[in-house]
Amino acid sequence: MATTAERAQRRAGRRRTWTAFLAATLAIVGGFVAVGEARVVGDAIEQRNLAAFYDQPAGALNGAAGTVIRSEELVGVPFDARAWRVMYRTTDLRGEPVVSTGIVVTPLGPAPAGGRTVLSWGHPTTGASVDCAPSRSFDPYALIEGMRLLLDRGYTITATDYVGMGTDGPDSYLVGDTGGNAVLDAVRAAQHLPAAHASDRVVLWGHSQGGQAVLFAAQRAPEYAPELAIEGVAVAAPAADLTALLSDHINDISGVTIGSYAFAAYAQVYADRGATIESILTPGAQKILPQMNELCLLANIGRLHEIGDPVVGHFVTADPAKVQPWAGILQENSAGGVSFSAPLFVAQGLDDTLVVPTATEDLVAQEQAIGIDVEFHPISGADHGTIAYLALPSLMAWLDAHHL
């Protein structure tokens, strides 16, 4: 039997052990808090001169697609990473030079021989005005779904704002070729930052609007960026079939919101084909269009609904899927039907009421029919907002299976 002194010594030893454990735990937690606080402080510092970065300098359009016009290293960064805000050159659907912005994030530490695989991210709809660009937000990393997991896998991540957001340029909302070019040229821009260690190996990942953009990037890469090796393509609830998307929602508030962004863009981009606002929107819809397009989606859902609700049910003068030039424009900007060699991961929330499951099932069948290796993940309980996050475990397993 232990003596009183021995028992006291054991209790003292246990106290020392728990004290050390608690100190270590608090140090770890404190470290994460300190990193988080440093990132918030850094984000605040970066906001002070934010507008100046996005003013295009003289000669901004003069240079090859993918070259960097300007860059600045960010202070508020994810843990164990470096990041830059970039302004770079790209092209629109007609091959004309335009400017885009975005961010590049890379893990700290030595890169593998040959550089890091680049994960080019396409963000979901945030709006259509320059102020709605994710790179201009207080936390420019917030919408990169799965960023921490992707950095831990060793990817350099590029995240385009798309053309017409962040900095001046033609409106490109759901303009497939322009969006795809911006996704690819973001990779090229990262390659101009030596510390990003960006290689020619590329994985594309996008959600909703970003799903459409990365599918177009995959389709266009062999011709537009043949030096890039697209090794995998992943999408969550992609806005692939625009005819179905607008037809499904043209008489609800989602259709009014998406339509306000899309018809304004198409009227600008396809004006030479007779795509005028007056030819598709009712007078009431035309009246609210400027207000809808100046508001960013995530921060103004209530206000967008307030403005858009009065025209629900009488937003358009005809079904855009059935009248020209709108039917042709929607078809041209719908993704799918063009084969590419990379495997394709598709996730779809079964509770999604915006991009409905049957639309994504049709995309999967279409892609499989033309020989693309598709892995489809319908996920119960996931809606349009949560699908990309809930798909992350399956996405990581798919990346592992394909050694990406």
In short:
The protein is an alpha/beta fold and 404 residues long.
Strand order of the largest sheet: 1-2-3-5-4-6-7-8-9
Average pLDDT across residues?
90
- Quote the CATH topology of the largest domain: Rossmann fold
The name of the CATH architecture of the largest domain is 3-Layer(aba) Sandwich
Question: Unreliable segments (pLDDT under 50, ≥5 consecutive)?
Answer: 4-8, 10-38
Structure description:
With 404 residues, the protein is an alpha/beta fold. It folds into two domains: 50-241 and 334-401, Alpha/Beta hydrolase fold, catalytic domain (Rossmann fold, 3-Layer(aba) Sandwich); 242-331. The chain has 13 helices and nine strands. It has a nine-stranded mixed β-sheet with strand order 1-2-3-5-4-6-7-8-9, sandwiched between helices. Keywords: Hydrolase. One of its GO terms (molecular function) is hydrolase activity. InterPro entries: AB_hydrolase_fold, Lipase_secreted. Pfam families: LIP.
Label this structure with key terms.
9 strands, alpha/beta, 404 residues, 41% helix, 13 helices, 9-stranded mixed β-sheet, Rossmann fold, single chain
Any chance you could write out the topology, listing elements then pairs?
Blueprint: H1 4-47, H2 50-54, E1 68-73, E2 81-91, E3 97-107, E4 116-122, H3 147-152, E5 156-160, H4 176-191, E6 198-207, H5 209-224, E7 229-236, H6 242-249, H7 253-269, H8 283-294, H9 301-308, H10 326-332, E8 344-349, H11 357-369, E9 374-379, H12 387-390, H13 392-401
Parallel strand pairs: 4-5, 4-6, 6-7, 7-8, 8-9
Antiparallel strand pairs: 1-2, 2-3, 3-5
Helix pairs in contact: 4-5, 6-7, 7-8
